[in-house]
Amino acid sequence: MGAYILRRLLLIVPTLLGIMIINFTLTQFVPGGPIEQILATMEGEGDVFAGISGGSGDADIGGGSSEYVGARGLPPEFIEQLEREFGFDKPPLERFLGMLWNYVRFDFGESYFRSISVMELVLEKMPVSITLGLWSTLIAYLVSVPLGIRKAVRDGSSFDTWTSALIIVAYAIPGFLFAILLLVLFAGGSYFQWFPLRGLTSDNWAQLSWPARIVDYFWHIALPVLASTISAFATLTLLTKNSFLDEIRKQYVTTARAKGLSERKVLYGHVFRNAMLIVIAGFPSVFIGVFFGGSLIIETIFSLDGLGRLGFEAAVARDYPVIFGTLFVFGLIGLIVGILSDLMYVLVDPRIDFERREG
Fold first, then answer.
1. I need a surface site. Which of 19, 136, 235, 316 has the fewest CB within 10 A?
2. Is the full-model pTM beyond 0.85?
3. Block mean pLDDT (10 aa), the chain, length 359
4. Cα–Cα distance between 8 and 33 in angstroms, integer?
5. Which ranges does the record mark as transmembrane (predicted)?
6. What's the angle, vertex CA 175, arms to CA 173 and CA 179, rounded to 5?
C-alpha cells in the first residue's frame, strides 16, 4: 500500500503541471489583460473590452505588443513600465518556467491589484470554502447513508416511494435558487429573520465567549451549508440504496440468514462492508462537487469571502497570480482527496490491495 500511495503522490506533479500549462496557455489568448484593465480605467472606460473588436491593436496578454487598445494618448514609456512591473516584458515561456519554479517553493507571487501575497489571500479565504465543503459533505453522508439503507430494506414500500419523490424534487431544484429561497424565507426577506444575511461570523465575534462563538459560527453557516448540500442528497441516497439492494440479493446474505443471524447482524455485519465500497468511492465527487461547483454561487449569494469568490473576482480583474494560485490549490486539494478516498477503501475493507490490483 505504501508503494501505491507513493506512486499516487508522484502523479500529483504531472497532473498539476498539465493544469497549469493549459490555463497559462489559455490566458495568452483571452483579451483584456491586467494592463488593459489599468489603461481602460485611466482612459475612463467603464468596460475594459470596449473597442477591442473595433480597434486595430491587439490586447497582448503575453506582453509582446505595446499597442494596447485604450492606450491612445499615453506615453509608450508608461506602457513599457507597466509591462516591466507585471513581468510582461519577458517571453511567455520564460514567465511560465519562472512561475513553476516559484510554485515548487509554494511562492504564488503577489496579487496585481491588492498589494498582498497570493498565499496570504488563499490562507485567508480557504477556511470559508473548507467549511462549506466539509460540513456539506458530512451532513450529506450522515443523512443519505442511513436513509439509503432504510429505503433498501423497505424497497417498494410507501416510505420508499414518498422519500424518492422528495429527494428527486430536491435534486431538481438548482442550488442557487434554493439559496435565494432560504434567504427570502429565513434571512430577513419577506418572512422571517432567523438567520444572518451574510458573513461567516458576527461583527462582535472576538468579544464572545467560546460557547457563544461556536453557536454564532453554526448560526451563520446553517443556510449556506443547507443550500450547498441539497443537490448531494439525491445522488448519494439512491447510490446507497442501490448498492445495498445489490448486496442483499446475493447468495451470501441468504446463507447468513439461513444460519439464524438476525437481520441487523446480516445487514451491518456482512452487507454494510461490501455495499459501502461504492458509496465511499463517491466521496471525492461529492466533496469536490460541493467545494468547487457550489462554492462560487453560495459564497456570492451569502456574501462569504472564500476561494470560489476570490477566483471569480480575480478572473474578472485578470489578476493572473491569484487565478493560477487558486487553480493550483483547487487542483491539489482534489488530487489529495482522491488519495484519501483510496485509503478509506482499505479502511472499510482491508482485503482490497491496490498494489496487487495494479500488478
1. 316
2. no
3. 77 86 79 70 50 34 43 65 71 83 82 82 83 83 88 88 87 80 79 78 79 85 84 80 86 84 80 77 68 71 81 81 84 80 70 58
4. 36
5. 9-30, 128-149, 161-187, 217-240, 275-302, 322-348
6. 105
The CATH homologous superfamily of the domain defined by 119-348: MetI-like (1.10.3720.10)
- For cell 465527487, name the residue: 285
Closest CA to 318 of 88, 130, 53, 119: 88
Res 43: pLDDT:
62
Q: Tell me the three cell numbers of residue 254.
A: 441468504
Closest CA to 290 of 67, 138, 116: 138
Say which amino acid occupies 297: I
Residue 187: φ, ψ to 5°: -125, 45
CA dihedral sign, ordered 288, 291, 292, 294: positive
d(CA 271, CA 255) in angstroms, rounded, equals: 12
Check residue 354 and give its pLDDT. 60
Say how far apart CA 114 and CA 108 lie, in whole Å.
Answer: 14
pLDDT of residue 7: 81
User: Which DSSP string corresponds to 26-59?
Assistant: HHTTSS--HHHHHHHHHTT-S-TTTTTTT-SS--
